[in-house]
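Teaching note: in complex prediction, the entire set of molecules is handled at once rather than each chain in isolation. The prompt given to students was simply: 'Predict the structure of this complex.' The entities are:
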Amino acid sequence: MAGAPPVSPRAAHLILNHLISMIYKIFRVSTILSADSVTWTVRVFIVLWSILVIAPLLLLLAFSFFETRSYMTVYDPSLKTWISLFESGRFEVALRTMRIAVTVTLIELILAFPFALWLAKGCKSKETKAVFLALLTIPFFLDLSSRSIVWRAILGQAGGVNTALMQLGVISEPIDWLLYSEFSVHFGMIAPYFPTMFLPIFLVISLIDDDLINASNDLGASPAQTLRRVIIPLSLPGILAGIVITLGPALAAWVEPGMLGGGFVNLLSHSIESAYTALRYPVVAALSAFVIVLLAVILVCVVLVVRRAANIENIFRQMHT
Amino acid sequence: MNMAGIPLKSEAGKFSTGRYVAVNGWKVFAKACGIFAIALTYAPLIWLAVMSFSSRPLSGVPYPLSLEHYRALTRNPAWLEPFASSIIIGALVAIVCMILATAVGRAIPRARRPGGLVLFAIIPLFVPGMSMGAALFIAFRTVLDLKLGYWAVFFGHVVWALPFSLMMVLVIAVRFDYRLLEAAEDLGASSWRRFWDVEFPILRPGIVGAGLFGFLLSFNEILRSTFLRGTEATMPVWNWMMAASQQSQVPIIFSLATIVLFATLPILGGFFWLLFVKLDKD
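The expected output is the structure of the full assembly:
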């Protein structure tokens, strides 16, 4: 799932087996373990998480229905803040944010799916697998600002790419759309958002039983048919998880567009930031809630499209009979 | 892909050569995709390290070389406070995540509805960083009227890192063989001994992973920190401010980021070696 650590396929199979036999185990274990301590821990955690996560999110939603008058928040529920959002040209910003986030997510999907497929099923060397998984997990921990600012030096007018191209005589003047443009924002977002798309897809494809794929081949399916009718339907949960945890952060992208957009690519995150600086908290709340709503809407669309393309339940029914 | 696996099978001969080429073409394409993304990730890092030795890091060429920016780091200690606070917050987040993830991680498989609980615990993964930061800001600052600062950053980071940590522990906890605890009880071990001598050693890699994720995710967190920091600054926030301002401070973050990079890479490399190579052998 989501940011789960990479697991070797063998381990993944073990997990699956254990999950299945867990129901039986829980039944037995409850007689051995002090069941009290388990329910107690779970209860404390639910309370803690409700205070730290659920309550703030509900407050955020509530705040979006208040408004700001002369730097003071007026606690008088109305739709004014939401209406003003769409009247102040932020709609255009929202559309741009959505377009860039969806484009980046699609690019990641196109890059990540074939690679995940190859690493999970095509690559036979354990060492290669481990190295690639490590290489793709390490970036989670690296500072985004310093990684992004480097592109300025590479893509800028006097930067590496332009200097090299000019010396080679390919171009006579520096290309100016390389930096501070939508191109550079998309380009800079490819690397940071790749692992979140790759890891869930990889995990799910690793869990597909090789026998299913072999059976499909033995029955005479072409590789393309096996891909379309066996592998893609079975990896849909991973693809969906990848889309969720890539699209969410992409909708809230702030560092890359700030560093590489040079003020020309204004996204929702910048609107949130400027509203925050202006102490207009209901606007902050409405915009933040809007990002969450946007994510939810796109997801529902994706799920609907996927449902139409392949009836998930049907696939599982076929698998088990 | 068993698109890719096909040629490895003994009866592969029955496939036409054309199909072979198509499958191999896919393999090349698939590898190219991954290597492209990895190159885009690591090229900036290498460039960062190289340019930290350049006298003009934001230019296109590394020459002339100089150690000026490393010297500037020692002359201008403004980065020390954000750096230290990030390390302390990271360490606290790591400890709290280790404890919480262990407690909750071993409880979840035994709870009545494990699936629902896991979903509940990973909600923060589905909320964009900016929105979660704003939500916590409104709760802490506006509703509870508290003075924000490092403590709020700490809570924001725990909310962000705990789902990851929890999954590290869960991966091992769901494989746990409960017969071991039965055996320990039959042999007369107290509930504490059962945990410390039997359960803990088995869960340890997951707990270590939980701590590592907690620390590093907190150390690099920026979106939530921006809202929750009050007037304080953590390392990524400071980096961002230096990088966003068009001033002479920019070169410093090159040398600083390089030092941090070379400090974290060996830790991560070691951890992954442990995870993949050593655990796989056991």
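Point out the following to students. The two ends of chain A are 26 Å apart (CA to CA). The first strand of chain A starts at residue 67 and ends at 69.
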